[in-house]
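Hi P.,

Sorry for the delay on this. The queue was packed all week, but I finally got your sequence through. Input first:
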Amino acid sequence: MPTALTAPGVNLGAYINAVHQIPILTPEQEQDLAHRYYDEGDVEAARLLVMSHLRFVIHIARSYSGYGLPQGDLIQEGNVGLMKAVKRFDPNKGVRLVSFAVHWIKAEIHEFVIRNWRIVKVATTKAHRKLFFNLRSLKKTNNQLTLEEAEAIAKDLNVTVKQVLEMESRLTSYDASFEAQSDDDDDGRYAPQYFLEDGVNPADVVEDADWEESNNTALAEAMEALDDRSRDIVQQRWLNEQKATLHDLAAAYNISAERVRQIEKNAMDKIKEAMLANTHLQLD
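Then the structure:
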């Protein structure tokens, strides 16, 4: 395994070729290295864990190529997320590192895209972030959304129609130059930079991406795979604003509260299994 790599921004092709020469760890090798770092603080073990998973960062970063940002920068941000994941990975939890790391990798790339894609931030709330990363793929054409299309997308992403239309407007707008240009008035009075007070810093900290957002699509698919009764029980027990009790659902379905609990547990196990499988599928 190579001891060092050039940064992806220097020679992206050479970097990708070098990364794909690094062998993937077996589950046993991964566990051994993870325990060496987690239990003993072995930094070399942590380095080997990071190096062996760099190819997964490249795979994830490619899915963000539609935002017009340098691929090398996306990969570097994803690598930061991978290192954070290795630092926090607990090998005693019984999951593979890649399943844990994918959320940290995406969170770092999400923040980088939002921070750099436009001068004015386009995604400042959870609903905005969800729309920012899903609206393009959900639009059927490049034309402006119709009200019916906006309503369908709002229902699919659990946001309001107003938020959908607002995000489309932000994504289709163009950035004006912040600094004075040569064809502006001679004194530059129309440049936005002259209307801001000294010392104003418009760069706010973007909220951390959380598990709910990164798994939104997988959760919806897992819920659809359940039978009607199981789906309704999970919906009422976990997802509705007004949570139902076991006894409420027992009365509704004319079964015992213990039977409701069993159905709920089986459904949650299926959802967890489906979401884990979905994570691995994305990286295959």
